[in-house]
Every structure is written in C-alpha cells, then in structure tokens.
Design brief:
mainly alpha; 2 strands
Length: about 170
C-alpha cells in the first residue's frame, strides 16, 4: 500500500479465484527432448558419447541388434532384429530435423558441424578430437565390459554356436 500525502490510494484486492489458463500450460513433448542443452541459453558442449554420434542410445541398440542379426539362421529373427536399425535411421533423422527447426530443443549449426549422425564420422573427418575422447574414456567401464565378454566367451566355448531345429517328417 502506497501513501501519497494524506490521501490513501486504492489497492486492488487479490482475486479469490485463480485464473488457471494464465498460470499453467500443458503440452506434450517427446521424452528425448527434456532438458536439451542450449534450451536455457547455456552453450552447447559436445562431450562423451556425443563426440562419437548425436544419438548414442539409438546406435547402441542398433549395433547390439546387428550383432544378433548377422548370427541368426531364421528369417523371422532377421525381420525382428532389423527393426531397431531401421528405427535408428528414421527416428534419428527425425530428431535432427526437429531440433534444427527448434521443436523440443535446439541443434545449433555449430553443434551440427562438429558432430555426426553416423558413429565415428566426425572423429574420422577430424571434426572431433580423438585425444579428447580418450581423456573422457572410462577405463573401468571398458574393463568390466571386456571381462563380461570374456566370461561369456569362456562359458560358450565347447557348445554349438546356435541351437538349430531339425524337422523329421514321418510318413503316415
């Protein structure tokens, strides 16, 4: 309340009802778009797996799927394990397209020029530094992954590479 001389100014009473339309807004966003760098004005820094590719989760699933895909003997498994690879290609391109246009985040021209969609392309072309990637590399994670892979190989040794189904047809 302000006083100007002896005269009191009218103060507006607060509304008893809130105007919810101006207070809260509702929007549906893609879960991959929450807390994107550069959204709140901070500088986008490319580090970690983002030095290798802009979509590390998609490509990790695709490489795992490709490993199973090339070992399988069944057409249905080929169809199933090729799905994540196609999803990576279409959804990754779609995310880049959206971020370049400012839908759900921002992908600046600088970040686009320094990173790559396909893994290791930016590193091979010299847009990213192998030394910086090596500095950020966690040797303990690689050791655990190598140990687990070696353990699985030792456990698998001596067994058939993949179980096969043999059909025997009987004449009636």
């Amino acid at each position: 309340m302000k006083k100007s001389g002896t005269k009191k100014e009218d103060t507006k009473e607060p509304k008893s009802e809130k105007d919810w339309s101006q207070t809260y807004s509702f929007g549906v966003r893609c879960p991959f778009d929450f807390d994107q760098p550069g959204q709140k004005g901070e500088k986008e820094e490319i580090s970690g797996l983002k030095r290798v590719t802009r979509h590390p989760a998609f490509w990790t699933l695709s490489f795992l799927s490709a490993g199973v895909l090339f070992r399988t003997q069944h057409l249905t498994s080929v169809a199933m394990f090729s799905g994540p690879i196609l999803t990576t290609l279409t959804c990754g391109y779609h995310m880049d397209w959206r971020l370049q246009r400012g839908y759900g985040g921002k992908l600046s021209e600088e970040a686009l020029a320094k990173s790559s969609f396909i893994p290791f392309v930016a590193l091979a072309e010299g847009r990213q530094s192998w030394n910086k990637l090596a500095d950020e590399f966690k040797m303990s994670n690689a050791a655990v992954a190598g140990l687990m892979s070696g353990l699985l190989w030792v456990m698998r040794r001596g067994r058939a590479p993949l179980p096969t189904v043999q059909h025997t047809w009987k004449k009636v």
